[in-house]
């Protein structure tokens, strides 16, 4: 989230700077309108586009959590499967900031809804028609403003024919150009992105560009430019305007007068400016959208047993080879840290201390299962539910288990267990039993080099999905 905020602020800032330096002074008003709206929306979407494409999480079928009747051969003691209430994490600065953000966003949303209902109330009044405009007379201020095809105007203003003719033509442009839709989009974005300063700059730029468009079209319709300029100047003293409407009273008078009397540049110059703006924004867009914004998922892989502790048959060698294959896939998205890279004995205490020193996001302890009934096979996942990480450990277990089912024909269950590592690490943890070494089919898979690579790939795929959920 922090990275998303950073990249949206940077990309919006760069796009706004491009507009200010390249396009603002040009009388390419319609292009400027769509450039501002387009860059605004694309800059907000760009940082998550790569994540949506590459890290899309497939649907996961429900896995039964009922206790298994099959016993597990293990050197650790299963302490029970009683479900306990998972403790909620203590409040932190991130929770406080989240609630502050939510409170302010709700305030903006309430303001927006209040303004919408205020306009709806005005539209209920009796109204006349001037062309496609529905004229609603009000007693609030003297300036006119429009909301879609509704024109709100003080009755006294209609008595001044010079003003009313210019104003009606001006507001008719707002109506025909659907400028109200732009305003509504901006207001909705402000409810969610009020903290981004460039949203506010964009809002001012877009509303100002609306006025440039309306001014230009009004003069082109035959209204005298000198008289119209005087009306703009006089209207600066009439500041009230109905919220969420496009208005004749926009007060940046100097910019409007300057733009109204400015000569249009040559076609070549306008083309070069537009091309430069598009190329510059394309660079900004690529910078934002092709950047992976998520922090790497730090995963400690614990290849079970080792050294004097062989596990079930040749379990220690099998899980070590799979662990090594998985470590080769470590990259900027998934950082793999292995506890052992050779046949060495590690005590459970040493393993837990190692894991906690790494500030890991997840621990996967790799094992192979065994049972006296050689027909029993399949993968199993264990998690510990009596700490703060129980919910995440369970969810991650589902993903890790699901992606192994295409390799092992038998479907097993997720189980709760009090294994030492699961209980004592300071992060979500899953103990994964990769098949039964006592089952001929599972053994053939586990001892085959290509299948070990396939198991590692499926584990890495699961880690990508887990990372997408963070």
TrEMBL record:
Ranges for domain MurNAc-LAA: 352-464
Transmembrane segments: 6-22, 34-54, 93-113
Enzyme class label: hydrolase
Transmembrane listed as a keyword: yes
SUPFAM superfamilies: Zn-dependent exopeptidases
Reaction equation(s) it catalyzes: Hydrolyzes the link between N-acetylmuramoyl residues and L-amino acid residues in certain cell-wall glycopeptides
Domain of life, per lineage: Bacteria
EC number(s) stated in the UniProt entry for this protein: 3.5.1.28
One Pfam family recorded for the sequence: Peptidase_M56
Keywords: Hydrolase, Membrane, Transmembrane, Transmembrane helix
Entry coiled-coil feature ranges: none
InterPro entries: MurNAc-LAA_cat (IPR002508), N-acetylmuramoyl_amidase_3 (IPR050695), Peptidase_M56 (IPR008756)
Protein known as: N-acetylmuramoyl-L-alanine amidase
Lineage of the species this protein comes from: Bacteria, Pseudomonadati, Bacteroidota, Flavobacteriia, Flavobacteriales
């Amino acid at each position: 989230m922090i990275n998303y905020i950073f990249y949206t602020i940077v990309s919006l800032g760069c796009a706004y700077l491009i507009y200010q330096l390249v396009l603002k002074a040009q009388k390419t008003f319609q292009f400027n309108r769509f450039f501002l709206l387009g860059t605004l929306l694309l800059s907000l979407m760009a940082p998550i586009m790569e994540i949506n494409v590459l890290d899309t999480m497939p649907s996961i079928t429900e896995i039964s959590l009922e206790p298994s009747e099959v016993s597990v051969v293990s050197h650790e003691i299963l302490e029970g499967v009683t479900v306990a209430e998972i403790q909620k994490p203590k409040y932190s600065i991130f929770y406080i900031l989240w609630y502050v953000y939510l409170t302010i966003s709700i305030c903006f949303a309430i303001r927006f809804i209040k303004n919408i209902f205020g306009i709806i109330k005005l539209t209920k009044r009796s109204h006349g028609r001037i062309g496609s405009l529905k004229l609603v007379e009000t007693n609030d201020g003297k300036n006119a403003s429009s909301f879609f095809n509704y024109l709100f105007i003080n009755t006294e203003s209609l008595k001044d024919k010079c003003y009313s003719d210019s104003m009606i033509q001006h507001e008719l442009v707002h109506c025909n150009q659907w400028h109200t839709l732009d305003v509504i989009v901006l207001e909705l974005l402000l409810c969610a992105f009020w903290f981004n300063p460039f949203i506010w700059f964009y809002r001012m730029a877009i509303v100002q560009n609306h006025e440039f468009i309306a001014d230009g079209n009004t003069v082109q319709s035959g209204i005298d430019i000198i008289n119209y300029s005087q009306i703009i100047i006089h209207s600066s003293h009439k500041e009230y305007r109905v919220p969420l409407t496009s208005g004749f009273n926009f007060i940046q008078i100097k910019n409007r007068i300057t733009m109204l009397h400015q000569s249009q540049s040559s076609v070549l110059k306008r083309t070069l400016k537009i091309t430069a703006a598009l190329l510059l924004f394309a660079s900004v867009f690529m910078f934002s959208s092709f950047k992976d914004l998520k922090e790497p998922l730090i995963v400690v892989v614990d290849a079970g047993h080792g050294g004097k502790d062989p596990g079930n048959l040749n379990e220690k060698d099998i899980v070590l080879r799979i662990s090594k294959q998985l470590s080769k896939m470590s990259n900027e998205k998934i950082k793999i840290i292995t506890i052992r890279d050779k046949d060495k004995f590690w005590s459970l205490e040493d393993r837990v201390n190692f894991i906690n020193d790494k500030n890991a996001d997840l621990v996967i302890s790799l094992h192979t299962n065994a049972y006296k009934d050689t027909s029993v096979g399949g993968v199993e996942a264990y998690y510990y539910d009596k700490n703060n990480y129980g919910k995440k450990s369970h969810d991650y277990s589902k993903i890790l288990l699901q992606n192994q089912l295409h390799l092992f024909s038998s479907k097993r269950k997720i189980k709760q267990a009090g294994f030492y590592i699961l209980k004592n690490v300071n992060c979500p943890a899953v103990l994964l039993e990769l098949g039964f070494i006592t089952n001929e089919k599972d053994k053939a898979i586990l001892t085959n080099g290509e299948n070990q690579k396939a198991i590692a790939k499926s584990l890495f795929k699961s880690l990508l999905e887990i990372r997408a959920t963070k």
